[in-house]
């Protein structure tokens, strides 16, 4: 009794003033910063009609909106329904999964527009960030990193902690992305390094710092029920189906987007079969485990991210997916217990298996594919276009590019682990309203829950 | 005992002959009217190949289909999954929510194609309505108004009443839309006035006329269970994610669609944070309420509808969203009880908070934004394009336009309230098979329900 | 006791070695075959930039990717979420529905890319299959046939059997498709014949061969619970909403895609009303049956498939939908019991009502519409474009085309029934791990199921 009392006093989950205060102040800051910095770019401004004439653009259809908007909407679905529902698998944390995912993504996209804008879309003539549809996609991408990290701490943190985690996550993301894409000039269309490797190790590092030795106290809630697993499949499938859009959304117009979609489609198909194979092989009587089907089937999409735009060739994509399905499912079976017991990393959704390992593989595949690129396969112009060997990088060759790709992977890892440890320490401060060990994975801490069961008189 | 007997006699919910008769006769009427009136337009007819040549259109990609089809499909998802699942939150009315939504939308889009066609797409050379993808979008929009109205009476009416409500609703919609968009030449890309204000006050007026003083008898069913709230989040998220498509679907090609999407994306992001803030602030211990998250997070999309295409600027959109999240959530907490107790308006889904107030705000924002439009900001051509200051309206200036925008809002309100009261009186006739007070919010009245609970021997 | 023991010995559902072996070996074969045969086509290859210049293509937007990718993604959603969730209606087989659907579709699209590639996309200069976005769509289409067939045997077969069924199904599909589309030169944009008629009769024939006289033993699981019916509506609605994309995805650029979308939109709207009418008419007290709403509302999309691209005219589409809603719902009420009792065909999802009958109707409507085509209605160029009366078919006239359309329907039926019986016999071999009669419709045979009910202490 006293033990729990002490705990309750230490762990005050009343976020009544803290959560509203953070939401209000941060949203007001966004408004002010947007007022100072953010404007429409030439394709979303009413001056587009003049711009068109000035640049001999014959038709409105050549507005970037029409190249990217369908992919943008698919990515948007992945962020809000995909990530949100994938995490609803816990029997009693579905509100928190889909609701907090919604909250932090809605804040994150605003902060990402600013952070990425300063690095990538700043118009030096007037000091304004000029935004269009590509910025919206990149903001969604940036948020994806933080939502991946959420998977590691799902059910163990308060919404205020999640917002803090997102604020720092987006900031770190924008810097590492700038270094990887602009300074190193590495390519990463689908973000295997920039998004997945970064997001996963960022979350795992935070979870390591926030290690809860007595998490077993809420063990009875750390699992699924039948229908929560079906809800999670909504998330899985929307992620799986729209991943070709994710990896092609900001690829080059024309063949770049086209090829990225094909590569991703194939890698994901291949992953499903090896996931099923391993899941069945390691369970008694060959039964399948929903955890694997929900997560590992997506590993191929992660791993083909960096090289999606490259001439990976269709069978190359299948090979990547083949191995990722195996590795990711083996991760759930063998590596996750090791991670928790030996390394003291509690990873609720198993993001190490879905994002971390496949992300690193994706970075390596990208480096190899870049190194192996030849004029014969790509064509002279094709090689130049695909790797943007123009301007200050006009003299770079594929073998050198491969080295920079590998360097990019290291940058992502450093930012993720260093940043994660720092943010983890910040989140350890006893002011954020996180739940006690016996209240983890329980919606009733942060949500009004009216009734759990669908029961009726006479039924 | 006798009381209930009397009630049951008065409230005969057997719709066996009435529902099939209405469906058959109305569908046959649609076939006949379509046979007389509706044909393909020049972009969906096999003569397109000749039209292209005649009009020097260089590529098939300039067919309006490619400008609008992706947005159309998103809007379609909002209508059927968005509205349908948003209303599944009731513990025992999910079939009625998603099923009747399906029925009335399927009827409504046909009747809307005719009604809107006569006003907007009539080819005077042959007296035929010529349809293309833009007509499909507009039909979906038109239906949205009726589905909003359904939210007010959810669980309290029969499917026959819903069909009658839709028939009149579409008719009224087409007339008020014609007056607002064509006669007054107001702009309303996302339909804050035409769709949301009209739909919401139409539904609220009907609900006022159909007031049930003894609705408390089915109070135990007027609430959610855990998983029905998760189902509702599917609706919420698809509405939220695809709202940029909704507001940009019929905007001008090029920058118009592009800007409308950006403005909506931002307004909605902002709304989420203030919704969470207010929800947490007004609940004991700062818990969040799913009702607010499911509904108020969408208010920004409603309120930015009219001005979506304007140079609202990114921070302007954030401001609109900021206030709408606050007002809408406050509405659920404070205004809904007042509405029910004092004004005798029973509003099952709280459409007053989600559509009515934000819709009116949207109309006002649109009027202000139009009034404030300048050549400096828009450019000469941009101003002309955005407000269509051409033909008979070539001499109109922004300040005048602002006045007409405000007039448009008044027209929407008048049609909604006047029409709603009239339709409410029609629906009061005791011939439509509506449920008794103790049977409201219960699927078993109109649906074969086999089994509620997932129970098994030994489990 | 001994009876069940014998049964359990006969019916060993341990798929531990068989399922992984099939998945691994088949996936490896895919990799090898893709390595030998599959390459990017000119629009997804880095040489696109050269191809553009060589062919005077002015803009990247004319890459086929931009014409078809939005439709492709919609089709992709139909395959994985649409078919997957439509089948989750069983109270205890939702994992199998959505999970096995996922597995066989992921394998099927790979095998389809090869099979269809050999027939349609083989570059004879280098012996390679060249793939682009249209191939991805066609692979999804091909898989749709097998998923339809899955509906007939849902809950009664093992995942290994499903994979075998898919392997043969795709193979047969590719051949019948080649004969119908290329040899007979019949048109079938939405696949009423090629996909639906074939898939449905293929599945029904298999189910006929696999007839289980004692299926009543698992009767208690062959039904829905409240929330599983709501899950199924997710599938229904995504199929319904995206069907216009399905029927237009591989139609001609420009007016072809545009018209196919309009026709499908209208046919489906009409079907909803007659489905509701018949469902209400034949139930006691006029209640609606979720089975009908989930399935028969889609019949119009099936039946308008072949003629979607033709000048069916809007009212023609409504008429097709009108009758299909009636026939399909009547099928569920009257024909399904007859099929099971008299013809010994157990059809879990009622695919005979949703795909078989509407598919045949679609083939007939297509034949009639082709026969009735005139230069007056289509225009000279329009007629040539729509029916591809070019090359070796330059002299074909509409009346002859109508005959070939009808011949195509017969080919689909022959391949389906012949192939289905053969595959059924293969699946009867006692080596595939199918469930005993008393274990049908039960996820616990092939899935780790942790907990069924959402129960909590004190709740």
From TrEMBL, chains A, B, C:
It is a multi-pass membrane protein. Signal peptide: none annotated. Residues 65-429 form the Ammonium transporter AmtB-like domain. One of its GO terms (molecular function) is ammonium channel activity. Keywords: Ammonia transport, Cell membrane, Glycoprotein, Membrane, Transmembrane, Transmembrane helix, Transport. Coiled coil: none annotated. It comes from Sinocyclocheilus grahami (Dianchi golden-line fish). Its main location: membrane. It is found in: Cell membrane. GO terms for biological process: ammonium homeostasis. The gene is rhcgb. One of its GO terms (cellular component) is plasma membrane. The chain crosses the membrane at residues 19-40, 93-114, 160-181, 193-211, 231-250, 262-282, 315-335, 356-378, 406-427. Gene3D superfamilies: Ammonium transporter AmtB like domains (1.10.3430.10). Belongs to the ammonium transporter (TC 2.A.49) family. Rh subfamily. This is Ammonium transporter Rh type C-like 2. Functions as an ammonia transporter. May play a role in the elimination of ammonia in the gill. Pfam families: Ammonium_transp (PF00909).
